[in-house]
Amino acid sequence: MKLMNAHRESGSVLVVTVLVTLLLAALILSFSDETDVELSLSGFFRDNDHAYRSARSGVQAALAALHEEREKDAKENRAELSTAAMDIQLGEERSVSVKTADESGKVNLNFLVNAGGEVDEDRVSQIKRLFRIIGLGEERVDALLDWLDQDDIERMHGAEANYYRTLEQPYGCANGSFQTPAQFHLVKGFSEKDLSEVGVPKDPAHYLTIYSDGKININTASAEVLQSLSERLDVSAAEAILDYRKAKEFQNITDLGNVPGLSSEVLSGVTGWLTVKSSAVSIEARGTYREASSTVQAVALLKEDAAQPRLIHWEVK
Q: Could you give the CA distance from residue 201 to residue 102 in angstroms, rounded to a whole number?
């Protein structure tokens, strides 16, 4: 009997020992897995941080280039800053690509309503012309005006707070100026889904800005933006301007008189909206490190009385 009890106790001890061993093994594996996950996450965050730093350095390089080019322009009496793309290899595993664009070559949405809160009908006519040119119904302008003005009265094709509160993911109506480019897509009729259904060749945001001083830079504006300036400025006139500036940039507005076929009647009433200089430049820098990538979108103001471009927008994607 004692022998049997001894065997039972020995067997029980063995079972307990095995269970404890298995439990310890499971815990060790669990700790090992957690360590692997932590190391993996650590590597992920490290790589993303390096990618972000690469993108940030791209923005700084673009700002330095803008500053240098502005000084060169001042010495040579040149009117325009170049906007272009560049790729920089920072090492075997690190690179950055940078694109810059002149925001003054676009139509500023915030100027549809003036500082006193009143609608600027001339600007409204311009944006309606632009929408017609790019294949977007001009009735959508109503929603933009409702977003910008300070009242809660809906226009025929517009929308105020009551409309936005009924959406699946509700939000308010700004009743004020656009603060970020992304807000444009919050307006009724301008979501990415709405625009894709219309089938316009380019996102209207390609022609629009919220950062310029309101004047259109004739050295960088697209043919569509140029045509939006006046009913008299048709496709042929816009193309004539583009052809002229390919050979020689505009030093001042009066140079438009040298463009073949461009009469004073065509330019009547719009010269006050024109400039030959940039007031704001957008920068997009995409940094990569190994498999990670990070994109920084920035906007800098270019003031004639300021030594350096001034950053006013910074967004990491």
A: 20
Residue 175 CA to residue 144 CA, distance in Å, equals 10
Here the tokens at position 232 are 């008299």
162 and 242, same domain (yes or no): no
Structure tokens at 159: 């929308």
User: What gap in Å lies between CA 60 and CA 91, rounded to an integer?
Assistant: 18
If one counts the domains in the chain, the total is: 3
88: domain CATH number is 3.30.1300
Tell me the residue range of the domain where 161 lies: 109-206
Q: Give the C-alpha separation, 47 to 289, whole Å.
A: 6
Q: Is the confidence at residue 99, as pLDDT, over 50?
A: yes
Q: Is 44 inside a domain boundary?
A: no
Query: pLDDT category, 74, cuts 50, 70, 90?
Result: low
The pTM score is 0.81
Distance CA 70, CA 66 (A): 6
What's the mean pLDDT in 1-12? 44
| Residue 165 sits in the same domain as residue 195 | yes
Q: What is the DSSP letter of 270?
A: T
Extended strands (E) in 36-154: 85-89, 94-102, 107-108
